[in-house]
Amino acid sequence: MNDCLFCKIIEKIIPADIVAENENVLAFKDIDSKAPTHILIIPKNHIESTLELTGDNINILGEMGLMANNIAKTEGIDEAGYRWVINTGINGGQSVYHIHLHLLGGRRLGWPPG
Ligand code: 5GP
Ligand code: ZN
Predict the structure, then answer these.
(1) What is the CATH number of domain 5-105?
(2) Which atom of ligand 1 is closest in space to residue 29's alpha carbon?
(3) Is 0.70 topped by the overall pTM?
(4) Which of 6, 13, 93, 114 has the smallest CB count inside 10 Å?
(5) Tens of pLDDT along 22-66?
(6) Where along the chain do its domains lie?
(7) 6 C-alpha vs ligand 2 centroid, how far in Å?
(8) 35 phi-psi bin (left φ>0, alpha ψ -120 to 50, beta other)
(9) Which residue ranges have their beta carbon within 6 Å of ligand 1?
(10) CA distances for 90 relative to 3, 33, 83, angstroms
């Protein structure tokens, strides 16, 4: 049995506030939002992190990006700007090991990250 939290959200075993979905990609609100808009975009196939991206599965990143941009438009944050973030591993700050793209916006975000 796969013990991955985000796989359980995909399977609808754990509830989430889903904002968009297609055959390959799911988007839902982050449970602990760090900005007025904070949405996670994930592949429906389990990929642990960016380290597992290969020539065979890299296209999923494009699909995730397109969904993020569509959501940015429907959320009305596209004109003002927004940020994509993917954390990898311990130094990257990854806490859930199912690759996810954070879509953050709705306020001026700081840089550099902490
Ligand atoms: P990471 O730190 O791995 O880049 O991001 C994981 C994100 O998942 C965090 O921003 C965290 O708030 C979010 N998260 C953790 N558990 C849940 C959950 O059960 N539901 C939702 N919607 N988000 C979660
Ligand atoms: Zn998973």
Answers:
(1) 3.30.428.10
(2) 22
(3) yes
(4) 114
(5) 999 999 999 999 999 999 999 999 999 999 999 999 999 999 999
(6) 5-105
(7) 5
(8) beta
(9) 5, 16, 28-32, 40, 87, 93-96
(10) 20, 20, 21
